[in-house]
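USER: My hope is that you can spare some time for a protein that puzzles me. I am handing you a single protein, as its sequence and its fold in C-alpha cell form. Walk me, if you will, through where the backbone shape changes along the chain. The protein I mean follows directly.
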Amino acid sequence: MNRSTLATFIAASAAVGSWLFFDQAKHNGLLSSHAGFLDDPYDAVGSFGVQIGAFAAFIAVVWFFVERRTHVPGWQERGVFVTAVTCLAVGISDLTGQMLTIGLASAGPWVISGMFLLIASGVGLILLNPHRDARLPSLLAMLGSSAPVGRQFFAWADRHPLLTGVGVGLSSGLALAIAHEVLEGGPKDALSLILLSSIYVFGEAVVVALGWFLIGNWLRIYTMPRRLLPQQDE
C-alpha cells in the first residue's frame, strides 16, 4: 500500500471519527456533561468542520477509485489535506473551549482522548500526505464525458460552478432543517418553525456555497471558467 492510498483511507477514517466524536459529545449524556465546547463559537467550528472534513474525505476516496480505474495520478491528496486541516481546526477549537470553560480536569478520559486524537490525526495526515503531479480533469468534466447517464447535466454543472454551488448549498440547508426537525424536534407553531428553518437553510446554504466556490475548483470537483479566473497581464 503506497502513501497516497494509506493517507486517503486514514483521512476517511478520521472524518468518520471526528463526526462520531462531535455527535456523541453533543448527544451522549455521559460525554456532554464533561465537554466544554458545546456552545458557540466552538460548536460552530465543530459543526462546519466535520461537514467539510467528511466532504473532502469523500472526494479524496472518489479520486482514489478514479485513479485505480484510469491508472493516472488523481487529486486525492488535496482532499486529504482539507480533511487534515479540519481535524486540526476542530481539535484545537474543542481543546480551547474546554480549557476556557470547565477546564481539562473536568473533561474525562474519553473527551480528552477525542480532542487529542483529532489533533494527532491532522498532524499525521499532513506529514503522511504525498505531493504528486496529477493530470486528470475535474470530476464533473469526467462524468460529463463518460457517465452512462446524465452526461449533459454533469457537463453543465462543470461549466456553471456558481449556480451549482447555490443549488448544493440550498439542498444542504434544506436537508439540515429537515434533519433538525426530525431528530431534535422544533417549534410547534408554524411561524416559529418557518423562521427557524429559514435560519438553518440560509446559514448552511451560505457556508456550503462559499465552500463549493472557494475550494471546489482546488479539489478539482469542477473546472473554473476562464472568465472567473484572475486575469494576467500579457
In short: The mean pLDDT is 87.
